Amino acid sequence: MNLLQRVNWLGWSSFVSLLLVWELVARATPKLELYLPPVSRILGALGRALAAGSITQHGLVTLGRFAEGYLLSAVLAVSLGALLGYFRAFHSLLATLIELLRPMPSVAIIPVAILLLGIGDAMIVSVTIYASVWPILINTIDGVRNIDHTLIDTGRTFGLSRWRILWEIILPGASPYIVTGLRIGLSIALILVTTAEMIAGSKGLGFFILDEERAMNSANMYAGIVVVALLGYALNGLFLLAETYAMKWRHGMMARQAA
Amino acid sequence: MPILDVQSLSKSYRQAGGESTLAIGNITCQVESGEFVSFVGPSGCGKTTLLMSIAGLMAPSSGRVVVNGREVHGPPRNLVLLFQEYNKSLFGWRSVLGNVRFGLEARGDRSAAAENEARKLIDLVGLKGFERHYPWELSGGMQQRVAIARALAYEPEVLLMDEPFGSLDALTRLELEDTLLRLWAELKTTIVFITHDIEEAIYLSDRIWILSRRPSQIMQELKIEFSRPRHQVTTRAEARFMELRNDIYRQIGNQGIS
Question: Is the pTM of this model over 0.90?
Answer without folding.
Answer: no
